[in-house]
Amino acid sequence: GLCDYRLFSAKNSVSAEGLHSRGGDFVAEELGELMDTKAIIGDAVDEFKKHASDRKFLTFSPTIKFSEHIAESYREAGVNCAHLDGSTDKKTIRHAVRDLVDGKIQGITSVAIFLEGLDAPAVNCVQWLRHTKSVVVKMQGDGRGMRNERGKDHLVILDHVQNWKRFGLPDDPIDWSLEGKVKAKAPGEVSMTRECEHCY
């Protein structure tokens, strides 16, 4: 089964309003430019330390440059973190995942990997710094941390990019259609999800 979760938005969460799309998702380069500021990077590290400082984490980033900056900022803050992306060789990826599971590193920032096929139940924090228009990407990303493991009480999801507003919560029911698209909400249908003004 899947574990429970706690989801935190960020006080300074970043909207993707006005960004372009390519191939059914946001343009990665535009997302990288939007996110790659000291304020956003600092907020990402601060929110992690506030809500999940003792947890093993995966951070999903829009670009390699941004992911490298986040990993560097984590290390500067005393959190042992590695950066991986699609060009990283498989041996290095395997070693990094083993180091994460074994506690030699605490987190991995990544681009375009780990959204499927990763079996690491020790991951108990997922951080979204990448906007997506794909409910499947969001579900797979959250799913990397939802595997149960002995002693794991819940997953912490840190959503800095309002993906939860786009898709709802991980355990919300989804009304799929045979056309391969998620059915839109009926006119007037209101989400029961609310954001806490104090802890987000």
Describe it.
The two termini are 27 Å apart. The protein has helices at 28-35, 38-52, 64-76, 90-102, 135-143, 163-167, and strands spanning 4-9, 21-22, 25-26, 57-60, 81-85, 107-111, 125-128, 154-159. It has a six-stranded parallel sheet, sandwiched between helices. Strands 2-3 form a two-stranded antiparallel sheet. Helix 4 (90-102) links the parallel strand 5 (81-85) and strand 6 (107-111). It contains six helices and eight strands. By secondary structure, it is α/β, with parallel strands linked by helices. The model is unreliable at 184-190 (pLDDT under 50). 32% of the residues lie in helices and 17% in strands.
List keywords for this structure.
two-stranded antiparallel sheet; 8 strands; six-stranded parallel beta sheet; about 200 residues; alpha/beta; globular; 6 helices
Short description:
The chain is α/β, with parallel strands linked by helices and 200 residues long. 32% of the residues lie in helices and 17% in strands.
